[in-house]
Amino acid sequence: xxxxxxxxxxxxxxxxxxxxxxxxxxxxxxxxxxxxxxxxxxxxxxxxxxxxxxxxxxxxxxxxxxxxxxxxxxxxxxxxxxxxxxxxxxxxxxxxxxxxxxxxxxxxxxxxxxxxxxxxxxxxxxxxxxxxxxxxxxxxxxxxxxxxxxxxxxxxxxxxxxxxxxxxxxxxxxxxxxxxxxxxxxxxxxxxxxxxxxxxxxxxxxxxxxxxxxxxxxxxxxxxxxxxxxxxxxxxxxxxxxxxxxxxxxxxxxxxxxxxxxxxxxxxxxxxxxxxxxxxxxxxxxx
Length: 287
Hints:
single chain; alpha/beta; 2 domains; 9 helices; 40% helix
């Protein structure tokens, strides 16, 4: 069998965000957030697109969003490319989700906690060896947790996972293995097939069950990611070489110039740290 790559937004939403995915998502979240404990027993998968409610506010597009039985909102994002200011984007999405719960005139007591789960295909925290990192509000010196601690940021860094299929023992191990390696294996490992939700996830991810239109869309998304990864790496190498004697801003401009023919303005802005307007100006004067 050939399985679709759960690291792409198309495949991630199909596996974890479809109408048949509730039990799969419950198992996945229990593994990623609660160390495999059966903490979540029920959730509702809701629309992951958060349109702006204020003029000029950026659109927020998440891979999957769910509401737990106690009202807690969980937003989940799979991120392949390590773009500029990605950490700020995670915080922005979480705070926006938290703030926009209130209807006009609603009291603060109506606010429910928000958990932002982010799975990255790159090392988000290179100075840490932890596979899963969790951030909450604490007092700086004493580590006293803030009384209304309702924003929870959870990160899973796939490159830090190195277990073979024969070494998988926990539910967390098995789901992370699925995320990292599903695209490269041709059968469900025996150590994972005894988990009904993971077996179901592999069934959904079976490429043979996709329609021709879905296959075309999946291939387009994967190729786009590969093109972006290659373009960013190549441009950074060329831009760094050209900007060795220049300051950080000039280096960013050099990288952006290399990307103009390959990526859109928003992606170049995220990659280099330049504003979208600065990128547009560079494009306007580019030969």
